[in-house]
Amino acid sequence: MAHLGKGHSEACCSIPPVSMDYSAKGNYVDVNGTKTYRTGPTDAESGIFIVYDIFGFSNQALQGADILATSDHSKKYQVFIPDLLKGQYADLSWFPPDNKEKQEKLGAFFGGPGSPPDNVPKVAPLVQELNRLSGGKIKKWSIVGFCWGGKIITLTLHSSDLFSAAASCHPAMVAPDDASSIKIPFIMLPSKDEDANDVKGFQSKLTVPNQVETFPDQIHGWMGARGDLNDSKVNQEYQRGYHLILEFFRKHL
Residue 13 has what pLDDT? Predict the structure, then answer.
């Protein structure tokens, strides 16, 4: 799928999302005109900013945010998922992109609303507004990205000093040269579908405390919209991934 540009993994552009039922524990708030899912205790002094995958507010993403907000009993978090794509998500009908029309629509998405360089500048103003809305209660921020969101957070860290730790889960468009500009502790959780050489090269260029743990039996997107949580093994590894993030943040925040 060369029309999507170098770096878009085949898995990222071919595996469809999975529909799941879930009753979210949080609520939606308006942040600078951006719909944002918020969960966790409002008195928490640590914030987690999540950049979802190309499917937006999937139930898997909301459940993951709730896990991050409620599972570490020694550290409280307020967790936020802003709607960076403003409702312009990748459509289920495009997957698998097995004809020219679907491929063109997916290509237009990555060249339009899903363009990473166009989404990176949205992050800092949202964090600054969240700080204002919290009345300065949030003292430290971490950032988590899934698939496409993994690329967004990596590029964000090149120019932002707002975050104290970061996590990238089954990231799309892994580029080893992106790693050298990261200045905060960084955990990456690749799936079996990320290019192992790219992952290895990325880690080799990190100069900060880091952890890279590949999930060799999980597909790209298992912690996000592509995770079939009715499968007990997927659910187990989904949960383990989120707890690895919490353990890493607890250690480095």
Answer: 54
